[in-house]
Specification:
Blueprint: H1 2-39, H2 53-154, H3 157-164, H4 172-240
Length: 252
């Protein structure tokens, strides 16, 4: 009985010792874990700075003032630079317009000169053609007038009698009358043709006078245009010449 109690006490003591050792080991392990957790650095987010309303207003007003000052400076620079550039641009454009106007005027003058030259050539050709027709009419008229003179000469009674002596008829009066009628009819036809030729001659002479007047007018116009072109060229040459430098006035 005493042995059994001693053994039981020993077992209980050993069990208690093991339990205490286990608790001690567990507590030491928890302390180590706490130390490890406490030694690790903690990351915290910084607080966001929120400026006050007055600060925002001041910053916005300062930015607005800065931008307005910059815009004012650029505008002032543009205002000081724009007039000169505009003047240069205006001078360039005006010179280009002047050159274009000169080219247009020269082209128009050239075209007008070509038109006048063509009209002059046609008028001269027409005058030459009319003169050729007039010469033909005058030649026909001269031939017809000569023929009519021959008819008038043949109409004389002695010439009619002389022309009918060789017929050998018993009625010479009828032969002479027939001859006279033929000559009268021929004279009337020739006179009518002569009147037409004279009318044609008058018409051609009037047409030639009109054509010659047109030729004279066109020639005078072209001569005036040539003189004007020469004067314009001289004027432009004088304008393009550089002005003489002023001579310095002698000091007293």
């Amino acid at each position: 009985m005493p042995k059994y109690s001693i053994r039981k006490l020993l077992v209980s003591a050993v069990t208690l010792f093991l339990v205490l050792g286990f608790l001690i080991v567990d507590s030491s392990a928890q302390k180590r874990k706490r130390r490890r957790r406490s030694s690790a650095p903690r990351i915290t987010n910084p607080e966001i700075y929120q400026p006050a309303a007055n600060e925002n207003a001041n910053s916005n007003s300062s930015e607005d003032n800065t931008s307005s000052n910059a815009n004012a400076n650029t505008n002032a620079q543009q205002a000081t630079e724009d007039p000169e550039s505009m003047k240069r641009t205006i001078r360039t454009l005006s010179s280009q317009v002047d050159r274009l106007n000169d080219k247009l005027n020269s082209m128009q003058q050239s075209q007008q000169s070509l038109v006048d030259l063509e009209r002059l050539s046609r008028a001269e050709q027409r005058s030459a053609q009319l003169r050729s027709e007039l010469r033909d009419v005058q030649a026909k008229k001269a031939d017809l007038e000569a023929h009519l003179e021959d008819v008038d000469y043949a109409l004389k009674p002695e010439n009619i009698e002389r022309a009918t002596q060789g017929y050998g008829t018993t009625r010479p009066e009828e032969v002479r009358e027939q001859r006279r009628k033929q000559l009268e009819a021929e004279k009337q036809r020739g006179q009518a043709q002569l009147d037409q030729l004279r009318a044609s001659e008058d018409r051609l002479q009037q047409a030639i006078a009109t054509s010659d007047a047109e030729v004279d007018r066109l020639q005078k116009k072209m001569d005036a245009a040539d003189r004007a072109a020469i004067e314009n060229a001289k004027t432009k040459a004088q304008e393009n010449q550089p002005l003489p430098s002023p001579t310095p006035t002698p000091s007293p």
